[in-house]
Amino acid sequence: MNLALRDISYHRFKFFSSTLGVSLLIMVVMAIGGIIRGVILDSATIINETGADLWVVQAYGAHPQGGTLGPFVETSRLPQQVYHAIEAIPGVAQASPLATAWEHVEVMPHPTRLMKFMYINALLNTASMVEPDWMAMPKLQRFIVIGYQRGKIGGPPVIVAGRGIESSHYEIVADVKTGFQLGQRMRLGNFDYTVVGLTKNMVGFTADPVIYTTLVDAQNIIFQQDPNLLRSQRPSVAQPFTELAANQTRLAAPLATTAAAMATSTRFINAIAVKLVPGVSAQKVAQRITHWQHLQVYTASQAVNLQLMGSNRLILFQLALFRDILVLIAGIVIGLITYTFTLDKLHEIAMLKLLGAPSGVVYRMILQEALFMGLVGTLVGSALELLIEPYFPRRVVATYGDIAQMLVAMMIVVVLASVLAVRRAMHVDPRSVLGGG
Question: Which residue intervals define the domain MacB-like periplasmic core in the entry (predicted)?
């Protein structure tokens, strides 16, 4: 006969209601761990899925050592033709020019029941901070535009609906998190674009989803200036050639035309994704590019770390610390519950000792109940976390390895937390059953 199971059966409501509370706490701990893993995956998604070995960006930026921090962390701007020179470097299999930028469009929200519940909760608790009819207002859908040359790396890695980009202009492939539908048309820059395909899990380190276009379309969206602004700039562009026109008319006109064309040119890129020949040293090729082209080069792992340890660094540290604190709190809660259960059973423990039951039997009963609570609480909490993962607004990923680690951690914490209850049981005097001291 197992005393722990008999005691749990006798106090089943009290035990399982306490275990449910522990499960909800473990669910929160697992969710925080899943959020941490999601942030890490978001920071690495574009870099890893592109398949580039090296990322080339503008050489001089805001960084003290003189280098733009990666293709998606800081603004980088390069002439488009630079990628031809990089592709000619020995060891380079492919150099793909990319144009990238954050953009947005206004869309009408389609609130789910969960969003409505959160809205009502915000309205009740922060009435002064929430505008009335907020759910009916257009929202800004932010996304990252990535323009690539068809046939080169940098495009959508997988199409889950529709097709890839086949036309030279005005077609886009969007991540499903944008909420865009196949066939939907939208205005980006000065042109209308049609969604012809959908991809999945392609987001930036800020969790903004990605849309893909051809390189030329992305350049038009990102670099093309407002026509009204161009009209106001034309006099200033032509001004330096006024005096030259008085003396060298035939020379001034072509120069003025060239200057105007350069002022309105969109033939720029933000980064170059480089695929190397198998077996070639990435460090050596990076040194050649830096030396001969005077550009900043990062390996794929360095580019991921720049995104991960940039604006996400403090978020990850805080979440990890909060998770550890919650694990400790869960252990303390289980310890207090076990201690309370032990206090309720002092009379029974004294009776067992009076009847000659070994002390080890009593101590095993207490420890087994605590371990069972930790085991069931961890498994139920993990199952609940896996169940609610799809409803989080940002990617949350908890793995079976995380569950196994949580089980081990909780078993250790539970054993330590049950020491107080065991110590209390050790001091129970069997004579208290008979009314003795």
Answer: 18-290
